[in-house]
Amino acid sequence: ITKRTARLVAEWQCVGFCHGVLNTDNMSIVGLTIDYGPFGFMDRYDPEHICNGSDNTGRYAYNKQPEICKWNLGKLAEALVPELPLEISELILEEEYDAEFEKHYLQKMRKKLGLIQLELEEDSKLVSELLETMHLTGGDFTNIFYLLSSFSVDSDPSKLEDFLEKLTSQCASVEELKVAFKPQMDPRQLSMMLMLAQSNPQLFALIGTKANINKELERIEQFSKLQQLTAADLLSRNKRHWKEWLEKYRVRLQKEIESVSDADAWNTDRVKVMNSNNPKYILRNYIAQNAIEAAENGDFSEVRNVLKLLENPFQEAEGFREVKEDAEEEGATATAAACAQETRSRLPYCSKPPLWASELCVT
């Protein structure tokens, strides 16, 4: 059960899936979870991403999922006493969980990066530096991984520039960053909380935490910096960050090439493995919202479109067209909804979210 659970959450982390309500009763001993409520996929990479709007403390944030699943296993171990003594189960948990999670996570990340020949110690660092670069640039988690399969290993400057353009187009704009880092507390409330933390720590502990206050102060600082940042400055900064990481990635891919006899066959295999481990399509909140709004107006074609698309999330579906409705009555009811939704629905299903999507809240 420990190993199954570790592998499950490792798979989640590799595709940016967030469960939202990882209570003990929502986990199964067969290595699955149940009660999918406010789940979601992470768009812009943020290790502290919270998909459930009612999770005020971030208990089930993206980066907390592995440790929460381990904590839940500890509760299962307690429930199995006296049939299984804690000294046995806790030892299994300590020895097996972290090791299995790290192993499975790194195996999956190697496939996502097309590292199919060698397993090197440095791979873990390459992955963490990629995520750090994504975080710094506000990169779209799904789309950047998907793009990497088209990265050219040769060092042609024009190819690199073209690729950097594609990568940076998947990074957050100044407007998106301003929304993300917009302060959430009224300045007077924050001032009061800071005074309370100094003068009455016991009372402060009942209504707030230092972590939340620090996060708000960081948000204010970031938001202030963003006021001075131009789109050109941001683009230049993002290109610099990505160029640095891509150089390390190229060096690592060269080691793969040196270990094979046929570089072209290796590259074909690399792209195939990457495209079967990096989904092109995920159920983004804005896609779900468009489908919900259309359905509420009597048009279920968008629901069917999205369902059909997500049955094959890894396949290229550029030629994908709407599922045509057989029922004439649905077509008539749908006209007004289709007009209202036209501008929203124009985005390809693989697009990073539009700015209006930042207002969506799932609870």
From TrEMBL:
It comes from the Eukaryota. One of its GO terms (molecular function) is nucleotidyltransferase activity. Keywords: ATP-binding, Magnesium, Metal-binding, Nucleotide-binding, Nucleotidyltransferase, Transferase. Its cofactor is Mg(2+). The keyword Ribosomal protein does not apply. InterPro entries: SelO. The keyword Magnesium applies. Belongs to the SELO family. This is Selenoprotein O. It comes from Fulmarus glacialis.
